[in-house]
C-alpha cells in the first residue's frame, strides 16, 4: 500500500515529527523502532502535525506522544480510548492515534478497547505488546505466556494469556493487523491502518529487552524468519518459507476440521510455486471468518507448525461512530431552532399579573 | 404554613375557609402510576397559581411484587396561597390505593386528616400482603382520621366500560379517576389534563378517551359525594408571586437548561459524557433531546469513560460535562485529577444519594461533600458549588460553566436526589439577562522568542486553552508533573512545588470572583446563625422564619459556593454567638467550616435518607435559647411519619 496518495497533502519530513524532548526508554527498547517507523510513515501519508493527536494511557508505550511533534495527550491508565472518543467527537477533522500496551489496553483498559472497537471510532490504535509490565518493573501481563517468570509469578505465571487480535475481532473491529517493532513492513501496516476509515487495530510485538527479552524470537528472530512469518497481502496466496527454511509452504483450509492447515507447495516447471495445486488460500482482507482463524493460529494445538500471521489480517470498513453521532445530531436538530428563551417557555406555563 | 392546616376544613365547612397551605400524599403500588398522578396534580396546582414543593418517593425496585409494602410508591405535594419552601411535614390528605399504601403512610397523616382509600383493593390477599390481620377500613382502627373508602377500582371499570378495554388496561385508568377526584376537591380546571392525555395517547384514541372518561368520572363522583358525605370542595387562592411567566421545573431539567445556557454564554458547543445511574440519569435524558443547541451526548461504557470523553472534548475545544451520583463520582476520581493537572475546563455534576457504596439509590443525602472537596489523590483543588432547589439549579449550572472556562478548571456541581426529582414553580428566566463569558482560544505563540507556553498564566492564574488543529501550536499535555510555562515533563522539586502552589492559588482565587456571602434571613450578627447548603434550604428557611416570628434571635445563612468559600464568610460567621449547621450527613460542612474559620460550629445531623422537617429544625434552634447547656446540635432520629416511609423500605 506504499503507493497510496497522501490524503493529508502536507509536506513534512521525519525531522518535523521529532520533539525536543529527550527520549526516556531503555537503550535497545523496541519502542525506539516503532517511534521511528511512525515518524517515517507520517510524512509519507502527508499528515499534518497540527491536525494530528496522539493519545495514550500509562506505561512505557504511553510516553510515545511526548516524542512526536504533534498534539499529544498522555492520559490515565487504560483510558486513552475514552479521551480519544471525546476528542474525535468534538472535532472529527483530527487524525487521532492511540498508543497503548498489553497492560494498558488489554488489562486495566480492556473495557475501553472493546467499546472503541465496537463503536468504530475513526482512529489508529497501536497496541505495543511486550507480554510484560515494563514501567512497573516486570510483572506478568494479560498477554504473558504460561510460565512467565516475574516478580508476581516467581514460579511461572499460571493464568492463560489473552490474544489481542482475537479480542479485537470479537469486539467488532473492522481493521486488524499485526507487525513487530523492527519489521520493515511495519510502515506499510501503519499506512493501511491510516487509510482505513474507522477504528484500526494494530498489535505490534515489541521486545522489552529488560524484562521479557527476545520473547518473540520464536517468530521474530532474523534467522529462519521466512519460515515462521506469514506476511499477508490482499489478493495474494498465503505463502511463507523458502528452500532455505525447509521449503515453501502455504496455508490451506482443512475442509473436514474447518480449520487452517499448513501445506507444502511444490514448484512448477518454471520454478514458481504451484500454490493452486496445494490448495493455498488467497488472502481476502474482507473475509472475517478466515481472519478469526488467522489471528488464532497460535492458539491451536499444532502451533509449532504454523507461522505468525502478520500484516493486514482484516480490513472491511463500515460507517464510523463520529459520523453516526453527527448524523443523529443533525436528524434530531432538523427543523428546530436553538432558541433557549423559547425552549424555557415551551410546555404549560402561566402568567402572574402585577 | 403547611403543617398549620385547619383540621376541620375538609369536613363540614364551607369552601371559603380554605387554609393557606395543604399537604397531600398520593400512595399506591409502584404499578399504579402514583408518580404520574402526582406530577399531573403538581402541574394543575401550578396552573392554579399556588406555590408548591413536591417530594417524589419510589422504591429502588422497578416492578416490586404487586401489593407488597416495599412496592409502595408515594408522591407528596405541599401547595398553598403563601410561599412554600418544603414538601411539607405531615400530610393533611392521604390517598391510599391499596392496603400496603395505607399501612406504610397512614402514620404520617395529621390527626383529623382525610384518608381516601380504594376499598376495592382491600381484598384478603392484599390485606395479607400488607400484614393486616383485619381490614382496617372496617375495624375502627382509623378512627382518629376522616375516612372516605369506596371502590375506586369498580367505579373506574364502570366509567371506562364503553371503551371495551381489557380488565388490566381498564384498571390502569384508576389513577386518572383518582386525579379527577383530587381536581374536584381543589377546584381545578380539568382541561390542561385532558389536553395532556390526548397528547400522550395521540396514537391510541381509545386509551385517551378512556382516561379522560375516568378523569371526568372521578370529578363527577366528588360532586355527588359532596351532597351525601363528608367531602367538601375547597378553593385555594393563588400565591403572591413576582409578576411574570411561570412553569414547573425539576432539578434535573433546570440543570440541563442551565448547562445549555452556560455553553451559549461561553460561546461553546457542549459535550456531555454520561453513564446511567440513579438519580443522575435524568440529566442525560434531558440533554439528549436538546441537540439543536450544539449538544453532543455520549452514553459511555462506564463512569470513567464518561468523564474521559468529556475531558477529551474539552481538550478539543468543547465545554465538557459529565454527571453521576456518588459511586460513579468515586470512579471518576482519577480522571478529575487529570483535569486538574492538565488544567482543562470541565463540569462534573453529582446528584447525591445515600451512601456509602450502593447505599440508598433512590433516597436523598448530602454526604458527598468531603468527596467533592477532598476526595482525590494529591493536592487537587477544585471549585465546588451546590444548588438549593430545582429552580436554583439553573443559575448554579451557569455559574459552574463560568468558573470552569474562566479558570481552566474542573468544577463540581452538587445537587441531590431530592432536587433532581422534585418539581417547583419557576419564574422563567431570560437567558439574555446573564452576562456572557465568551471563551477565546490561543491562536499564536505566546512566549518570548517565538516559543509556546501552554502553562503560562493570566491574571486569574488560568492557562491558555489551545485546541488541537491550531497550526503551529503543537504541544503535549498529560498527568505527569510539568515545568511552569512550557508544561514539559519535569518532576524536579522546584517545579512540583511551583505547580502545586499555582494550582492552589488559582482555585483559591475563584473566591475573588464570586458574590460575597449574604444572609438569607435575619441579621448579619446576633445570637445564632443556622448555616445550610444544598437542599436543606427550604426547611431551614421556614424554621428560622417561624422562630424569628416567635421572637428568637436567629438568622439563616445559605452557602452556594462550597469551595472556595466567599471571602467574607469567616468574618460573617464569627459575628454570631453560635453557629448551627444542619446537614443530611454526619457533619461534613460543619467540619470544613471549623477547619477554615476556627468557629465552634455545632452539627445537626440527619442520616435517615429523609429531608429535615421544619419541626425538627425549630426544635434544634430552640436548644440554643432554653438555658440548658450542652443540648445543642446532635442527631435527628429517623421520622416514622416522613417519606420514605420506614415500613415501606423495611417491611
Give the topology, please:
The complex is a heterodimer of chains A (354) and B (651).
Chain A: H1 30-45, E1 52-56, E2 71-74, H2 80-90, E3 95-101, H3 102-108, H4 110-119, E4 123-129, H5 164-170, E5 175-180, H6 186-195, E6 199-205, H7 217-220, E7 229-232, E8 239-240, E9 249-254, E10 259-264, H8 275-278, H9 288-295, E11 308-315, H10 321-333, H11 340-344, E12 350-352
Parallel strand pairs in A: 1-2, 1-3, 3-4, 4-6, 5-6, 7-11
Antiparallel strand pairs in A: 5-11, 8-9, 9-10
Helix pairs in contact in A: 1-6, 2-4, 3-4
Chain B: E1 21-29, H1 34-47, E2 51-57, E3 72-80, E4 93-96, H2 99-105, E5 114-118, H3 124-129, E6 146-150, H4 152-160, H5 167-171, H6 174-185, H7 191-200, H8 205-228, E7 244-250, H9 251-266, E8 270-274, H10 281-288, E9 295-299, H11 303-315, E10 319-324, H12 326-342, E11 346-352, H13 369-374, E12 384-386, H14 392-407, E13 410-416, H15 417-421, E14 423-427, E15 476-478, H16 493-509, E16 526-532, H17 537-549, E17 554-558, E18 561-563, H18 569-574, E19 576-583, H19 588-597, E20 601-605, H20 614-622, E21 634-635, H21 646-649
Parallel strand pairs in B: 1-4, 4-5, 5-6, 8-9, 8-10, 10-11, 11-13, 12-13, 16-17, 16-19, 19-20, 20-21
Antiparallel strand pairs in B: 1-3, 2-3, 7-14, 12-18
Helix pairs in contact in B: 1-6, 4-8, 6-8, 7-8, 9-10, 9-14, 11-12, 17-20
Amino acid at each position: 500500500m506504499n503507493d497510496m496518495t497522501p490524503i493529508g497533502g502536507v509536506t513534512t519530513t521525519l525531522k518535523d515529527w521529532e520533539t525536543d524532548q529527550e527520549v526516556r526508554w531503555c537503550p535497545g527498547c523496541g519502542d525506539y523502532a516503532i517511534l521511528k517507523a511512525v515518524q517515517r510513515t507520517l510524512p509519507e501519508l502527508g499528515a499534518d502535525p497540527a491536525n494530528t493527536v496522539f493519545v495514550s494511557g500509562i506505561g512505557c508505550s504511553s510516553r510515545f506522544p511526548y516524542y512526536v511533534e504533534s498534539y499529544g495527550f498522555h492520559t490515565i491508565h487504560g483510558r486513552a480510548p475514552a479521551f480519544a472518543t471525546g476528542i474525535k467527537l468534538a472535532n472529527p477533522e483530527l487524525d487521532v492515534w492511540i498508543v497503548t500496551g498489553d497492560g494498558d489496553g488489554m488489562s486495566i483498559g480492556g473495557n475501553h478497547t472493546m467499546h472503541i472497537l465496537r463503536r468504530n471510532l475513526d482512529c489508529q490504535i497501536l497496541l505495543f505488546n511486550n507480554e510484560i509490565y515494563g514501567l512497573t518493573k516486570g510483572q506478568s501481563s494479560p498477554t504473558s505466556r504460561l510460565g512467565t517468570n516475574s516478580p508476581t509469578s516467581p514460579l511461572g505465571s499460571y493464568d492463560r494469556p489473552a490474544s489481542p487480535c482475537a479480542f479485537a475481532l470479537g469486539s467488532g473491529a473492522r481493521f486488524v493487523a499485526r507487525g513487530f517493532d523492527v519489521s520493515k513492513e511495519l510502515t506499510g501496516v501503519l499506512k493501511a491502518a491510516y487509510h482505513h476509515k474507522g477504528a484500526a487495530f494494530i498489535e505490534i510485538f515489541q521486545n522489552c529487552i529488560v524484562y521479557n527479552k527476545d520473547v518473540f524470537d520464536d517468530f521474530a528472530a532474523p534467522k529462519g524468519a521466512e519460515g515462521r512469518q506469514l506476511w499477508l497481502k490482499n489478493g495474494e496466496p498465503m505463502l511463507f518459507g523458502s528452500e532455505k527454511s525447509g521449503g515453501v509452504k502455504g496455508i490451506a483450509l482443512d475442509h473436514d476440521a474447518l480449520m487452517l492447515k499448513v501445506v507444502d507447495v511444490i514448484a512448477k516447471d518454471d520454478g514458481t510455486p504451484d500454490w493452486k495445486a496445494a490448495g493455498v488460500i488467497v488472502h481476502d482482507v474482507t473475509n472475517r471468518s478466515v481472519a478469526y482463524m488467522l489471528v488464532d493460529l497460535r492458539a491451536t494445538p499444532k502451533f509449532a507448525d504454523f507461522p505468525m500471521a502478520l500484516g493486514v489480517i482484516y480490513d472491511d470498513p463500515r460507517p464510523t461512530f463520529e459520523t453516526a453521532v453527527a448524523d443523529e445530531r443533525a436528524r434530531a436538530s432538523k427543523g428546530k431552532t436553538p432558541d433557549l428563551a423559547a425552549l424555557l417557555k415551551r410546555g404549560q406555563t402561566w402568567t402572574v399579573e402585577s | 404554613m403547611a403543617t398549620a392546616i385547619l383540621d376541620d376544613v375538609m369536613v363540614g365547612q364551607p369552601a371559603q375557609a380554605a387554609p393557606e397551605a395543604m399537604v397531600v400524599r398520593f400512595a399506591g403500588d409502584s404499578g399504579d402510576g402514583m408518580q404520574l398522578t402526582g406530577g399531573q396534580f403538581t402541574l394543575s396546582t401550578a396552573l392554579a397559581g399556588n406555590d408548591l414543593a413536591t417530594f417524589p418517593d419510589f422504591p429502588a425496585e422497578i416492578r416490586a411484587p404487586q401489593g407488597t409494602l416495599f412496592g409502595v410508591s408515594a408522591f407528596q405535594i405541599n401547595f398553598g396561597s403563601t410561599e412554600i419552601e418544603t414538601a411539607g411535614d405531615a400530610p393533611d390528605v392521604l390517598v391510599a390505593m391499596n392496603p400496603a399504601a395505607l399501612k406504610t403512610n397512614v402514620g404520617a397523616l395529621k390527626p383529623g386528616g382525610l384518608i381516601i382509600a380504594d376499598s376495592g383493593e382491600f381484598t384478603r390477599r392484599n390485606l395479607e400482603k400488607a400484614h393486616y390481620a383485619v381490614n382496617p377500613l372496617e375495624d375502627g382502627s382509623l378512627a382518629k382520621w376522616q375516612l372516605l373508602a369506596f371502590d375506586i377500582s369498580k367505579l373506574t371499570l364502570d366509567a371506562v366500560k364503553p371503551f371495551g378495554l381489557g380488565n388490566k388496561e381498564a384498571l390502569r385508568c384508576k389513577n386518572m379517576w383518582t386525579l379527577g377526584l383530587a381536581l374536584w376537591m381543589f377546584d381545578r380546571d380539568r382541561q390542561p389534563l385532558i389536553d395532556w392525555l390526548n397528547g400522550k395517547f395521540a396514537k391510541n384514541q381509545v386509551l385517551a378517551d378512556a382516561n379522560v372518561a375516568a378523569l371526568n368520572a372521578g370529578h363527577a363522583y366528588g360532586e355527588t359525594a359532596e351532597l351525601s358525605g363528608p367531602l367538601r370542595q375547597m378553593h385555594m387562592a393563588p400565591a403572591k408571586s413576582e409578576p411574570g411567566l411561570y412553569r414547573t421545573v425539576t432539578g434535573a431539567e433546570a440543570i440541563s437548561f442551565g448547562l445549555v445556557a452556560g455553553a451559549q454564554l461561553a460561546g461553546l458547543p457542549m459535550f456531555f459524557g454520561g453513564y446511567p445511574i440513579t438519580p443522575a440519569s435524568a440529566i442525560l435524558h434531558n440533554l439528549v433531546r436538546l441537540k439543536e443547541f450544539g449538544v453532543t451526548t455520549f452514553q459511555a461504557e462506564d463512569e470513567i469513560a464518561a468523564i474521559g470523553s468529556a475531558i477529551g472534548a474539552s481538550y478539543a475545544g468543547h465545554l465538557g460535562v459529565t454527571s453521576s451520583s456518588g459511586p460513579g463520582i468515586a470512579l471518576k476520581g482519577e480522571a478529575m485529577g487529570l483535569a486538574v493537572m492538565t488544567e482543562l475546563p470541565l463540569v462534573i455534576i453529582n446528584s447525591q444519594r445515600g451512601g456509602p457504596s450502593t447505599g440508598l439509590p433512590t433516597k436523598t443525602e448530602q454526604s458527598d461533600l468531603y468527596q467533592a472537596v477532598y476526595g482525590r489523590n494529591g493536592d487537587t483543588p477544585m471549585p465546588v458549588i451546590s444548588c438549593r432547589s430545582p429552580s436554583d439549579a439553573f443559575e448554579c449550572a451557569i455559574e459552574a460553566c463560568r468558573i470552569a472556562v474562566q479558570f481552566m478548571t474542573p468544577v463540581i456541581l452538587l445537587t441531590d436526589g431530592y432536587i433532581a426529582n422534585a418539581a417547583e414553580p419557576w419564574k422563567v428566566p431570560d437567558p439574555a439577562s446573564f452576562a456572557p463569558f465568551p471563551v477565546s482560544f490561543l491562536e499564536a505563540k505566546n512566549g518570548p522568542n517565538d516559543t509556546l507556553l501552554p502553562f503560562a498564566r493570566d491574571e486569574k492564574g488560568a492557562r491558555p486553552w489551545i485546541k488541537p488543529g491550531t497550526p503551529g501550536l503543537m504541544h503535549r499535555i498529560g498527568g505527569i508533573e510539568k515545568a511552569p510555562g512550557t508544561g514539559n515533563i519535569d518532576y524536579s522539586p522546584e517545579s512540583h512545588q511551583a505547580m502545586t502552589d499555582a494550582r492552589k492559588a488559582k482555585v483559591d482565587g475563584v473566591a475573588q470572583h464570586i458574590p460575597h456571602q449574604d444572609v438569607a434571613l435575619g441579621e448579619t450578627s446576633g445570637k445564632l446563625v443556622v448555616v445550610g447548603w444544598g437542599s436543606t434550604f427550604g426547611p431551614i428557611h421556614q424554621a428560622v422564619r417561624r422562630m424569628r416570628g416567635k421572637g428568637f434571635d436567629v438568622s439563616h445563612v445559605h452557602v452556594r459556593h462550597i469551595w472556595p468559600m466567599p471571602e467574607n464568610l469567616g468574618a460573617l460567621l464569627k459575628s454570631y454567638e453560635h453557629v448551627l449547621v444542619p446537614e443530611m450527613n454526619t457533619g461534613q460542612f460543619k467540619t470544613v467550616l471549623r477547619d477554615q474559620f476556627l468557629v465552634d460550629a455545632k452539627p445537626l445531623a440527619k442520616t435517615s435518607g429523609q429531608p429535615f422537617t421544619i419541626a425538627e429544625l425549630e426544635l434544634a434552634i430552640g436548644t440554643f435559647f432554653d438555658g440548658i447547656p450542652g443540648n445543642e446540635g446532635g442527631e435527628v432520629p429517623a421520622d416514622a411519619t416522613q417519606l420514605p416511609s420506614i415500613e415501606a423500605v423495611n417491611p
